[in-house]
Amino acid sequence: MPSEAQSRSPVSVSSIRESLTTTATRTQLAVIGITVFALFLRLINLGARVAHQDEARVAYWMARYAENGVWFYRRFVHGPFFFHVNSFMFEIFGANDFIMRLVVALMGAALPLAALLFRKRLRPSETVALAALFALNPILLYYSRFLRNDVPLAMVMVFALGFFVRFFDTRKLRYLFLGVASFALGFTMKENALLYLACWVGAGALVYDHRLFLGRVGNEGIAGAIPPKLRNWFRENDGRTIKRTVLKGVGVVLLVVVEFLAIIVFFYAPRSQTRPGVGLWKAFSNPGMFPELIHTSTVETWQQFISWSNSSDHAYLPYLIDSLRSLEVGALALCLLAVVGFLVDRYSGDRPNALVSFGFYWGVASVLGYSLAMDIKAAWAMVHAVVPLAFPAAVGLALIFRWGREGYERGDDVSAVAAAVLLLLVSAQVGMAAYDTSYQNPQSPDNQLVQYAQSASSPDDVKPLLSDLQQISQENDGTDVLFFGEELDTPDESDNDVPPPGPGWHARLPLGWYFETADAEVASTNRSTDLAGEKPPIVVTLNNVSTCISEDGTAEDIDSYMEGYEAHQFQRYGFNSGCHVSDMTIYVEEERIISES
Length: 597
Fold this sequence. Notes:
Elements: H1 13-43, H2 53-68, H3 81-93, H4 97-110, H5 124-136, H6 138-143, H7 150-170, H8 173-187, H9 193-217, H10 228-236, H11 239-268, H12 280-285, H13 290-307, H14 316-347, H15 354-373, H16 383-409, H17 413-440, H18 459-475, E1 481-484, H19 511-517, E2 522-525, E3 538-542, H20 555-558, E4 565-571, E5 583-589
Helix pairs in contact: 1-4, 1-5, 2-3, 2-19, 5-16, 7-8, 7-16, 8-11, 9-15, 11-13, 14-15, 14-16, 14-17, 15-16, 16-17, 18-19
């Protein structure tokens, strides 16, 4: 890569243009190459991990939506984006663990491309470093292989910020509209899009304070905080021109508002089909329904949306410690580089880079804020801290690279070797953490990135069994699966066709998702005597490991009836905790077993 330092020797305008073009092209090619590698990392064994409880819960309803077309917003399963997108994917490619995570993986892999939107605010080496951090960070990698909204939300918000920055730099309206579209999509994914807005306002206020301070130091007063181009424009134009420009701006603002609301209404509008109530497709045949539809999609949705902020009530320090542990495991190098990059940028050069400062303030606020906002301990919250901290971290990483390259060019072996060692240490820490968390131990309770509702059963042992269960269900006539016990019993299985589900449904997860994808005929009972006679080929019950399980509701109560069946152990959670009983027994008719599990 050519040196970024300004050459002191005389050069022609054409050579400068050629050099800049070559550098830009190399930067773009490097970012594209990183993006391709990021996609490769995210697609390797994407469907191997057993579905987490949250994945199974929302994927089940996505599959049901693909079948019956009924959807309405429930904040417990977050925004509608993946319901609409994944139901479409399921219709085309079928429903399985790989497909349910595919769009998340694609969006996570696309995140490095956002670095190109900031290339006018960053050096070429910093742009490439930013893309690499987005691609390789272990936390972003792990949750790019997980059906959650966190990485996609971070991705669209970073793109939105990038488009807004490009609009500010170029004044081209297409970037404004693209930014608003990305920003609106964030609000269709998860409620903590509100926290992005809050962090941006706070970080923006601190960056603006930089301008005020620098204006004061330069004896320009508050006027120093106003961009010179804007000041000159006001000086050079008369009142009529300014008025015309203001009216044009008002028109653009109205278009932006309409664009934002159109996206929100499209995604949040209920799909009621033949059920009572308003529905998006119903409104096209009955236009008088549109006012109520818009009210439901905006005002009523907003009321549910903001109620999310009142969902946490816990001690702050344990959650903060858990967040810091997640950063230690999944983003130690990035956090250290972020501190270095922020300090170097702030205290060297003519003035701090507003983008770098903005990212650092945004990231620190996210670390502190999410520990308060979260209702459960989960490393996925740190996705929203890692992404902004990658901006100052890119400055720190690029600084080490330039230090080593410049040392090599001037024959300073000590600097070159020291930089190489630092880069190797960073690469080793990131690589080892990524391999351990995403590939070697993706559902181990000892993995800090694994939340407790992830099944601890080994995928090598359980995936063949789950495949057998699905194949048996597809080949069997009549009832395929019987859930036994009060905890698993749903008196009317049709209650599980549309949300909210009937009693017992949540306790079946994640198995309910796998049976749904096989279109299994499911029944349940609370009486052990129902198993004395003819039974389905698959019977599922909890193990008696907790006083929370009622009498006549566990494997001990029916084991004597299960002659001719082979018992398999399955852990729904990473561990047993109180009434969260992880241990399950799955009985499979011996003559139906297909593979050795």
